[in-house]
Each structure stands twice: as C-alpha cells, then as structure tokens.
C-alpha cells in the first residue's frame, strides 16, 4: 500500500474512533438529561438492571427509543445525502431540496387521511414507512423523468427538484387542512421533524432499512467514486453509468423515505453532513460514507438533546436545532471552497 | 409566434392591455365572491356610488375591496422583486423566497412581536423591511466573500443556508413566546387580514419601489448581458446593484408585512414574462407586475373556493398553479445559469 493511502487510513481510523467516543459520551449525557435528571452513574445502574422502577420507566420507555431513533435517522439521512450528491455530481443535492422528503411526507399525510383509521396502531407504524417509501420513490421518479433530456444535467435536476418540492408542499398543505383536528395535529407534529414521541416500534420499523442499506451503500462506494469523475470518464472506466446511477438513487431514496417516515422531514442534515465529511477526509466514498453515518447520527442526537432541554418546557424540534447548528458551518464551507 | 411578439412593441402593448383587462375582471370576481355572493353590478355600485346603509356595500368597501387591491399589489411587488433579482444576478433561481429575503422579513416580524408586544402596524412594516435587508446583506456577503466569487450556484446555496438559519431561529423564538400561529401565517402567506391601512403601506412602498424599478430597468437589461459588457458600455454597476437591492427590499418587505411569505410568485412570474416579452427589462418589469397581480388575485379566489368556508393558504395555490409552468421552463433551460 502506498504511504499516502496508509496515512489516510490512519487518519480515517482516528476520526472514526473519535466520533464513536463522542457518540457514546453524548449518548449518556442525553440519557441523563431531561425534565427528570438522572445521574450518569444511575443511568449505568439502570441499564444493568439495578435502578429504581421509575428511572427504568423514564430511560427505557421514553428516552432510549428517542435517542436510538435519532441516531438511526441521522445516519440514514446523511448517507442518503452522500449518495445523492455523488450520483448527481451536485453539491446542492439532498433529499430535502430534491423533493424526496416532501414526497414521503405527502404519502404519509395521505395515509393518515385515508387509511389509518381502518388499521390498528402497531400495524400502521410498520406500514407508514412503506407508504413514505412509495412517496419518496414517486417523487424521485418524477424529478428524474422530468429532468431527463438526453441525460440528466445536474443544474436541471436541482431546478426540477425545487419545482416538484414546491408542488408537493402545496398539495400537502391542502390535504392537511382538509383533515379532522386530531389527524391534523398528528400530521403537523410528525411533519416538523419530531422524534420525542418515539417508541420502540418506530425504532424496530426503521432499523432493518438502516442495517441493510448503509452497508450496501458502502459496498457500492467505488461506483460512487467513479461516477463522481463525470459521466464520460465513468463510462470510459467501464461503469454502466445510467444503471449504476439508478441503483444508487434507489438506495438513497429508500434511506430518505424510511428515515422521513420514522422522524418527519428533518431539513438540511442530508445536505450539510456530506460536505463536512468530505472536508475532513477527502473525496473517497469508502471513507465518506462511514464518517457521514457517524456525524449524521451524532448531529441529530445532539440536536435532539439540545432541543429538548434548551428552553424547557418549550421543546424545539430536532430538525430546527440541526439547521441552527449546521448552517454557520455550511456558510463557512461555502466561503472557503471554490 | 413568440418571436413575433418579442419583436413587436405593438403586440407587447396589446398583451399588457389584455392583462390589465383580465386583472380588473379578476378583481371584480374576487370582490363579488365570498361568504355572501354579491353580483357584479352591486360591486360596481358600491365602488362608484357608496351607500353606508346597504350591508353589501359595507362588506365590499371594508373587506373585499382592500383585499382585492392588496392581492394585486402584493402579487405585483413580489414578481417585480423577482425580476430585478434574476436580472441583476443572472441567476434563474434568484427570487425573494429562495434567496432568504422572505424568511428574513418573517424573522424580524417574529422577533419584534416577541420583544415589543403590542407593536403598531407601522412598526411591523419597518421590522419587515429591516429583516429583509439583513437577509439580503448576509446572502450577498457570503456570496461575495467566497473564493471564486458570486456564482449563481453559490448565491443560491447561500440563500438556502441563510434562509434556513433565519427560519429556524424564528421557529425557536415563536415556540418559546407562543407565537407559532403568527409565524405560521407569515410563512404560509394569506390575504385575509388586509384592510385599508395595509393598502396605505403597500401604496407608499410601491410608489417608491416601482418608480426605482422602472428607472433602472434599462440598466438591468445591460447588466443582464454580463458585468463586463455593462462596464464596457460605461455603466456604473455598483450604483445599479445598490438601487436594485433597495427596490427588492422595499417591495418584498412591504409585501411580506401585509401578506406573509407567498412562495413561488417571485420565481415564476419573471420567467414567464421573459419568455413572452424577450430580454428587455423595460418590458419584463411592467409585465411581471401585471402577471404577478393577476396570478395572485386569481389564486386568492381559488384559495377561498377550494375548501370553503375555510381559506387555504394562498401560497399553496400559487405554487400549484406555478409549478407545472416552472417545470416546463426548467426542462427547457439548457442547464440554467450557464
């Protein structure tokens, strides 16, 4: 192995280790803070089964599912962003801007509006991601087809994405206003990217998607590297450009759809995390994907904790905190890079 | 057909006159339609021959007439702002909502409501101008300090970032001070609350804003050919840009303070009028004003019809009407800003 690669791998392992330590630390801080404070030591005691019943209830039924969900959603959206930016060779691409989140959102709202009442609650929690996925796929399909004109030009893709996004949001508002008050509340809370109402069924519903798709994306990292060189080079290197692009898009859309179904539309995360990861480790997707997974998870968990505790009793949606935390850095990146 | 129009001043004038007639008819309809339908002849009577004792005359004078006028003015202002921004930056995506201007105005409005309870309508308007100004200055600062200069994509990215940041902070303030409803209104946009004092605000700002817009229209046409060309022709670009930004601030600030952030108007209408009128901003700006006014008056009628007796946010309607057209334009563009 050549020395540059070795140096890079060393750096990569160092950063991964650092991120994991940060995640574990934050995990315990998040668990122990809240309306009821539980000392970190008590948290450990409760986890190994030595805590009081009340502490057990707070930790296992309220905090833990929310935190784990935040980790999963954060990583899902971040990897989705990495893939979208790589595939479209466009720094602006992310599931939010391309209308995929809104597509998933619209599908979920339609689901709540038309179908939910005829199903029991647990079943509907598992079916909702499927609907979100269908919505996300439909949005992606629409954007891709409408942007297609002898190939997909990156700027046209973003323009079409913005258009489709606006159309879906408008439809979303109109349907939402036609709902009865209870459904309306459920939809609004869900849409603002709220994870604190999480319970274990949401975690279980999202887990398989992340566990299968993130490693698969990593497996396809080389394809992303090649696609990133531009269509012509990629074709020259033997990549079946359109086929690969579609497959990767499908993964990105599935990740975004499942994440949105579980946590609502959390804006900006998928846009900013890949930029941060690229800045830290350079352009190779073998490195970018794992680092983005961890940064995304960390960022959303931290944001969720801050949102819950900053202005108690007012709870701020995690998505809002993500935006406040990450936009200054994003602006900095914007100024620094060419 | 289109190229015939673009080369004939006579046809352009005819189109503008037709738009004015359509606008007047639409405003008549807007006044006639409502919880109690009033026929057009009564509308006419109430305007030219007002009788205080007739209820329908009062409804028209106090509620519906100001609403129709406000719709026309707000639509015109947003469209002209968009046209100026697109012309100055040569960026097809530039518009008050994408560049964060509307978010900035909403941010300042929420801030003012939170810290100065019971602030007057005039105070809110001034806040709205200031907020719009802060957003524009921030976006342009980020854009121009970056390595590589003020490229279209960079400007759009900066706008998205600053807009997201401002709207997130607004959400936090609104949640904490229980102003969600007001914020929701400004972000969704609506004309239900308009009265004669809003018209005053609009007319004063409009007189100044539209006047400057017409003054600099010719220079914007030159600027739109490229900065170098403009300099070569002896034009002082800095002065034009400052005047242009000032106009955008005045018009958008007034529009947002009265009707909230009505999306997509400033993006679509200028494209539409450039499509029909060609590249001369002396034609684009007036026809943007007329098309914008017409679209918003019509959308306002639809927003009252679609889910009667409740009103649907008019921004949702303008998006639904505008999106298909925008997508058509996006497809036609050979990659947008290049």
From TrEMBL, chain A:
Organism of this sequence: Virgibacillus litoralis
Transmembrane segments: 12-36, 64-84, 96-115, 121-145, 157-177, 197-218, 247-272, 284-302, 314-335
Position of the signal peptide: none
Primary location class: membrane
Alphabetized CDD domains for the sequence: TM_ABC_iron-siderophores_like
Family of the protein in this entry: Belongs to the binding-protein-dependent transport system permease family. FecCD subfamily.
A Pfam family per the record: FecCD
Compartment(s) of residence: Cell membrane
Xref: SUPFAM superfamilies: ABC transporter involved in vitamin B12 uptake, BtuC (SSF81345)
Keyword set, alphabetical order: Cell membrane, Membrane, Transmembrane, Transmembrane helix, Transport
Membrane protein topology class: Multi-pass membrane protein
Protein's name according to its UniProt entry: Iron complex transport system permease protein
Automatic annotation (TrEMBL), chain B:
Alphabetical list of Gene3D superfamilies matching this protein: ABC transporter involved in vitamin B12 uptake, BtuC
Lipid bilayer topology: Multi-pass membrane protein
Primary location class: membrane
Record's keyword terms, sorted: Cell membrane, Membrane, Transmembrane, Transmembrane helix, Transport
CDD domains, per database record: TM_ABC_iron-siderophores_like
Membrane-spanning parts: 12-36, 68-85, 97-116, 122-143, 155-177, 197-217, 238-269, 281-298, 310-330
Cellular location(s): Cell membrane
Domain of life: Bacteria
PANTHER family tied to this protein: FERRIC ENTEROBACTIN TRANSPORT SYSTEM PERMEASE PROTEIN (PTHR30472), IRON(3+)-HYDROXAMATE IMPORT SYSTEM PERMEASE PROTEIN FHUB (PTHR30472:SF58)
Family: Belongs to the binding-protein-dependent transport system permease family. FecCD subfamily.
The protein's name: Iron complex transport system permease protein
